[in-house]
Design brief:
Layout lengths: L1 E2 L7 H14 L16 E5 L3 E5 L2 E5 L14 H13 L9 E7 L5 E4 L11 E7 L2 E5 L9 E5 L4 E4 L8 E3 L14 E7 L9
Antiparallel strand pairs: 1-10, 2-5, 3-4, 5-12, 6-11, 7-10, 7-12, 8-9, 8-11
The protein binds N-(carboxycarbonyl)-S-(naphthalen-2-ylmethyl)-L-cysteine (MD3) and fe (iii) ion.
The site of fe (iii) ion has 3 residues, from loops.
């Protein structure tokens, strides 16, 4: 479900909270198991963070750069993710991981599935900030031609049910200047990476 502009009213608060997070856990370019350095810079907040290195992809409670826990998820992040999930029909979404993706012009994310989480019944909620991106949304099989969506500042998307394991990616970011973020796009993806939370 695409919620156009859902995060717009909170943009300044989100970016301010993000600065606090990246001051503790800086954005960095991870290396894939195949030895390629990713063009997207990443960090995390919350109990679990997604990491990649020569040994594989996984979620870790510790930031490999600092050896310490990832910073806590700011309250404005959690609130927005839960509100968006509810709007998309997922009650009680309690994310335990927030991956922060930072794109500069030319950065891209090749088509992939998100399969490193334990709980596929939970949705993924993504928040786009800054420069617009072309999001590629495929089906459950890699070969199908993906649909293209332009995601702009403040757009929020909830992916659940049959979409949860869809192939997806981001086309190389076109250059531009955004009023708040300059030559940059930030995407926050909220996930349930560990085991399912108890129903309430
Ligand atoms: C659809 N990020 O971090 S967010 C990723 O814009 C990722 O940075 C992209 O793909 C970005 O893994 C897209 C939207 C998204 C995230 C997870 C999904 C879409 C998804 C999982 C399943 C289906
Ligand atoms: Fe993904």
């Amino acid at each position: 479900m695409l919620l156009r502009g859902f995060a717009r009213a909170a943009d300044v608060a989100l970016l301010q909270a993000l600065e606090g997070v990246t001051a503790q856990a800086p954005l960095r370019h991870l290396v894939t198991p195949g030895g390629h350095t990713m063009s997207v810079a990443m960090s995390n907040c919350g109990p679990l963070g997604w990491v990649s290195d020569r040994n594989g992809y996984r979620y870790s409670a510790l930031d490999p750069l600092s050896g310490k826990n990832w910073p806590a998820m700011p309250a404005c992040f959690v609130g927005l993710a839960a509100q968006a999930a509810a709007q998309a029909g997922f009650k009680n979404f309690q994310p335990d991981a927030c991956l922060i993706n930072s794109y500069q012009p030319g950065a891209k994310l090749s088509v992939h599935q998100d399969k490193d989480e334990k709980d596929f019944s939970a949705p993924i909620v993504s928040v786009s900030l800054g420069l617009p991106a072309v999001f590629l949304f495929g089906s459950a099989s890699r070969g199908d031609k993906p649909q293209r969506y332009r995601l702009t500042h403040g757009d929020v998307v909830g992916w659940g049910g049959p979409s949860r394991l869809a192939f997806h990616g981001v086309a190389p970011l076109a250059d531009g200047v955004h009023q708040l973020l300059g030559r940059r796009r930030i995407n926050l993806t909220f996930r349930r990476a560990g085991r399912a939370s108890a129903a309430t």
